[in-house]
Design brief:
Length: 123
């Protein structure tokens, strides 16, 4: 058996490429294009919205199930688990990103200008 991502598996599609949304330590993957090939038949086993948590070290495990459509396993449920490390793959890091001091300085200066403008208008 081989697994790969494909835009179309001969029955279903088109599917988007593998994408993800990273918020804090939560990673939501779109694995709609996850396709299995066995015994001369390709069948989609993908799922959108596969959620996982990324540890501080970058480790993740994503699991999902999908109904097999077509082929020898038609109507059966496939169970899938992938593991990886987001940092080793060059992916996002779950550590918080600090707001640069320049942004804070700009924001406080902008608020000061708004205050001065309001005082002039009131006078």
């Amino acid at each position: 058996m081989a697994v790969y991502t494909a835009a179309i598996d001969g029955i279903n599609g088109p599917f988007p490429g593998v994408t993800g949304d990273f918020t804090g330590s939560n990673l939501t993957l779109d694995l709609s294009s996850w396709t299995a090939y066995w015994n001369g038949t390709s069948f989609n086993q993908g799922s959108a919205g596969v959620a996982t948590t990324v540890s501080g070290a970058g480790d993740l495990t994503a699991s999902w199930t999908a109904l097999v459509v077509g082929g020898a396993f038609n109507g059966q449920t496939g169970s899938w688990t992938i593991t990886g490390n987001a940092k080793a793959a060059g992916g996002p890091s779950p550590e918080p990103v600090p707001v640069p001091a320049a942004v804070w300085l700009f924001g406080s200066g902008l608020m000061g200008l708004v205050g001065v403008a309001r005082r002039k208008k009131a006078a």
